[in-house]
Amino acid sequence: MGHSDKKFSKPEYYNNRELSWLAFNQRVLEESSDLTNPLLERLKFLAIFSSNLDEFYMVRVAGLKDQVKANFTKPENKAGLTPKQQLSAISDHTHRLVKQQYEALTSLQSKLKGEDVEFKEIDTLTSKQHNFIEHFFKEQVFPVLTPLAVDAYRPFPILLNKSLNIIVELSGKHEDQKVAIVQVPSVLPRYIRLPSVTGHEYVLLEQVIRHFLNRLFVGYKVTSSLLFRITRNADLTIHEEGARDLLLEIEKELKKRKWGAAVRLEIEDTDAYDKFLPMLMNELEVEEIDLYTITGPLDLTFLFSFTSILSKDKDHLVFQSFIPQPPADLQPGESLYEKALRQDLFFHHPYESFNPIVDFVDEAADDPDVLAIKQTLYRVSGGSPIIRALKKAAENGKQVTVLVELKARFDEENNVQWAKELEMAGCHVIYGMTFLKTHSKITLVVRKKNNKIERFVHLGTGNYNDQTAKIYTDMGMITTKRKFGTDATNFFNYLSGYTEKPSYHHLIVAPYSIRDSFITLIDKEIAIHKKHKNGHIIAKMNSLTDKPLIMKFYEASAAGVKVDLIIRGICCLRPGIEGVSENIHVRSIVGRFLEHSRIYYFYHNGEEKCMLSSADMMTRNMDKRIELLFPVTEASHKNRIKNILDLQLSDNMKARVQNSEGVYSHVEKKDQRQINTQAICLEEAYRISEGEE
């Protein structure tokens, strides 16, 4: 990188990682006011925004607070903000966004009324409805509640992360004031449907509990109450060095996660606010900037299940359902294994079904000629058909090696469970490598036919998760090319045994090699551009944070190479800065599906190089993950991918572009044609499967 280092390193050329993530979550929030989205889908985007924000506080904000506690004042290495400055900017920005979120909720609630769907306040219920909730409270709620007194003998309770609680003030016979806390049980549904003549009427569980609070404190009078919710630090500190057994270490840490330090307090805006606030802030040790005063129901993640239940009656208010189609590379009834021996197979989920990938493992489990199955698993669904197939394969006496990544954040508990189940079934389970997360997506099936060994390799950009495969866009391929087979064998041996890092034909593996390869590829594009003046790079990913790679893009832009970046989430690079990044364009597509595929394309004066990867251009993916980057070798597949990239670059419905200040706005529609990439890909999948191609 040499002399250009300093020139491209100035803090004003970068977006801070955390603030860039908030800008992404703002794009999610904006979908709730996009009139092209059906009403219940708009409501669901409010839930996605909330759930994203919870995780952000539990991990990113918690980490910054830890730095402040440890008196760490060094600015981060891109935009140059100290931990304190970041926390303050995050707080300002998030307070603004949460206010917008609740304004959006109010507006959507009034639209729901037009569809005969309404959340009622208790004092507006009919006598029939009131009798109904009284009975409901007595039968189903009261037995589950546990009032917790707070006094000299019973200290302020340790409340669960993300739980909803009511703090209550009571006055007794002797006029002495007492305080108690009642947790809103998460085992009960958050909303209760009321009997009503017309339409759908609901009441929130916390309102019902609050209405009947007196019944919990017989002999006392409830003088006031207030709803609040806390978010805790949920980042696991796993001590890998010296851990005899990572499985046990993680199980131990998971128990502690529920009780991390409070990093945010959400509290409803009512008359009792001033009475309880000092006590809550003191007991929970939260500061002013962590306080969110909410006008409306706390914790909108309940809208996930609410929209899902309501959609059964109101299907005109959700996206039209679609059925993932058979892949274009497979004819109905055609054997995946036979076809793969003749050509590489390409998959584009969720437009094309994920079932063939499940069948790939399932058929291998039953095929008497299959000797071994090896697979990496990062996030797996509950009741996963892939896990079932692997267990069956082991029971059928095949050599099954599964790398289960125990450290996949918020999936640790699931993965510990899967690891145990697979071991019980006779699979050889490995947990990856010390200090590295295995994030690569690869499966190898070894078959012996007519005394010849055949190797089938599946490589992908997304997890082996049949549930998320319906809502994440990802790409994958199955190949029987000899060099891919050799690479896959070497890769698994490297993971499971003691061996020096192998050299590969096609696979490029992080840590170490992926960043180096990207730098070599960008350098090559710069060199070719100097000669032919037609340099073009397109890179699509979830997030871009890696400073050496950003500086490389700046160098390419300064040399005149055209760089198109399609980045859904965090982007620390700022486009359009004169002399630095004026040839770089950054866009983000947030739509019905979560854009998850990673595609890296280099024009190379017509000798196009097209690669797929499990890795984003993030420092952690380059340095702290085992990742795979692999070339797409078939011309027809390259063309398909290029067409998809072109489509995304012309999207004018769901795309936002970033300006040189780091601010995103909707694309200006130059022509009248509306281009919504995801909708077009859906239509195309249907067209191909109906044989119109």
Characterization of this structure:
Its cofactor is Mg(2+). ATP binds at residues 52, 472, 568, 596. Residues 128-306 form the Polyphosphate kinase middle domain. Mg(2+) binds at residues 379, 409. Belongs to the polyphosphate kinase 1 (PPK1) family. The chain has 693 residues and is α/β, with parallel strands linked by helices. Helices cover 37% and strands 22% of the residues. It is built from 19 helices and 27 strands. Strands 14, 18, 19, 20, 21, 23, 24, 25, 26 and 27 form a ten-stranded mixed sheet that branches. Strands 10, 11, 12, 13, 15, 16, 17 and 22 form an eight-stranded mixed sheet that branches. A hairpin with a 5-residue loop joins strand 3 (164-171) and strand 4.
> For the CA atoms, what is the radius of gyration?
27 Å
Number of helices: 19
Decide which structural class fits the backbone. Answer: alpha/beta
State the helical fraction. 25-40%
* Oligomeric grouping of the chains: single chain
Shape: globular
Question: What profile does the largest beta sheet have?
Answer: 10 strands, mixed
- The portion of residues forming beta strands comes to 15-25%
Mean pLDDT: 93
Distance between the termini: 47 Å
Unreliable runs: none
E-strand count = 27
Give the secondary structure arrangement, pairings included.
Blueprint: H1 4-7, H2 17-30, H3 39-69, H4 83-114, E1 117-119, H5 127-141, E2 147-150, E3 164-171, E4 177-184, E5 191-194, E6 200-204, H6 205-211, E7 221-232, H7 246-257, E8 262-268, H8 273-284, E9 291-294, H9 303-310, H10 336-342, E10 345-349, H11 355-366, E11 370-377, H12 385-395, E12 399-404, H13 412-424, E13 428-430, E14 437-438, E15 442-449, E16 452-460, E17 472-479, H14 482-496, E18 508-510, H15 513-532, E19 536-541, H16 547-558, E20 562-567, E21 584-589, E22 594-595, E23 598-602, E24 609-613, H17 619-623, E25 625-631, H18 635-650, E26 655-658, E27 664-666, H19 677-689
Parallel strand pairs: 1-6, 8-9, 11-12, 12-13, 14-25, 17-22, 19-20, 20-21
Antiparallel strand pairs: 2-4, 3-4, 3-7, 5-6, 7-8, 10-17, 11-15, 15-16, 16-17, 18-25, 19-23, 21-26, 23-24, 24-25, 26-27
GO molecular function, one term: polyphosphate kinase activity
Binding site for ATP: 52, 472, 568, 596
Catalytic activity: [phosphate](n) + ATP = [phosphate](n+1) + ADP
